[in-house]
């Protein structure tokens, strides 16, 4: 990741996923050699604490006020994105 305009916006919607699986997902994305991307994690009202994990990797973290479904979480990520290409 860099501070310049990202080429890719990687949007990760999640709801009550295993925190360790989420941590592994974040580590895998962060290990990428490609630098022109941003990561937007959209928590769809989970009861797990994902914010600390996401921010620990330097990712943007959004939390929905309640469980609105995967489509609403993806749309929230799209609204927050700055990249030319969206990846889910």
The N- to C-terminal Cα distance equals 17 Å
- Could you give the order of strands across the largest sheet? 3-2-1-4
- Structural class, please? alpha/beta
Question: What is the molecular shape?
Answer: globular
Put simply, the count of helices is: 3
Order of helices and strands: EHEHEHE
- Main sheet: strands, sense, barrel: 4 strands, parallel
Mean pLDDT: 93
- Portion of residues in beta strands equals 15-25%
Q: Which spans have pLDDT < 50 for at least 5 consecutive residues?
A: none
Helix content: 25-40%
Rg of Cα set: 12 Å
Q: How many β-strand stretches?
A: 4
3D architecture notes:
The mean pLDDT is 93. Helix content is 33%, strand content 24%. The protein has a four-stranded parallel beta sheet with strand order 3-2-1-4. It is globular, with a radius of gyration of 12 Å. The protein is built from three helices and four strands. The protein is an alpha/beta fold.
List the helices and strands and how they pair.
Layout: E1 8-14, H1 19-30, E2 37-43, H2 51-56, E3 60-63, H3 70-80, E4 85-87
Features:
about 90 residues, alpha/beta
Summarize the structure.
By secondary structure, the chain is of the alpha/beta class. It is built from 3 helices and 4 strands, in the order βαβαβαβ. A 4-stranded parallel β-sheet has the order 3-2-1-4.
């Amino acid at each position: 990741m860099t501070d310049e305009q990202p080429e890719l916006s990687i949007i990760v919607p999640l709801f009550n996923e295993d925190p360790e699986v989420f941590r592994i997902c974040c580590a895998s994305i962060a290990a990428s050699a490609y630098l022109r991307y941003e990561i937007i994690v959209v928590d769809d009202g989970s009861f797990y604490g994902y914010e600390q994990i996401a921010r620990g990797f330097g990712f943007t973290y959004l939390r929905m006020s309640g469980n609105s479904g995967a489509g609403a979480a993806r749309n929230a990520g799209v609204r927050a994105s700055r990249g030319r290409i969206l990846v889910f």
